[in-house]
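Q: Fold this one first, please.
A: Sequence and structure below.
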Amino acid sequence: MRNLVCFLEEASAREMLKGVLPRLLPDDIQCYYIVFEGKQDLEKQLVKKLRGWQKPDSAFLVMRDQDAADCHDVKKRLVALCAAANRPETLVRIACRELESFYFGDLSAVSRGLGIGNLVHKQRKRKHRFPDAIVAPSHELERLTNGAYQKVGGSRCIGSELSLKDNTSRSFKVLLSGIRNLFQIEDRDD
């Protein structure tokens, strides 16, 4: 059995990945989720947690939101922490702006997951066409869904609906590609 150990900034990322990873990875890969209490807690404890992981045949993913920071600086800092933990092969991925950018990349998944009217036509709106450029996607998603979206519960419902092929969020595509490369697996259909 191989393992993917995910170090995550918040519980909503775990819920989204629980919906995505079973469709992306072969059955012989066991996923573990280490959830921190925000990005500062993640960065503070990451080296210790990475060093302390003892299960053999494990690959590691560190994922956090960009928020208002410079994406390259955030990634560089996380990569340095992984190297300090003697885990330089760790996959580091940044959700451009916020995790909710992934959801704006597939508004039909949001509709299905939350059981609300068809939002796919809103994907064609200029401000939604480039999901990674939306400044505050969590607030925009709450507004767009009239409050139906809540971070953890919404991520749980939407994650299993997200398309693995047709999502327009570049950072979501880069996340999936990186995970596939970790395990050298082929692209799989939804």
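Q: Good. Now the second chain.
A: Here it is, same layout.
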Amino acid sequence: MVEYIEHETTAGERWDHIAYKFYGDAKRTSDLIRANRGLFLPGLKPVPIVFRGRVKIRVPIVEAPRLDDALLPPWKRRQ
């Protein structure tokens, strides 16, 4: 079961803004778009591209991927 945070948009906000705000990565829009398919017309690209204010969307809570310790510098590795 996926858990969600409800987010109310501000005028001018975009999917990539919201992805960056919640996930720290503007490229992670696909999770947001999948969770909000009800905002789209069937067969069309995700709309709106730019939100008007006060649109309620669902932001899925996803776990951050774990980094391989071998990729970290020695002082950041788990002991």
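Q: Anything worth noting on the second one?
A: Residues 4-76 form one domain.
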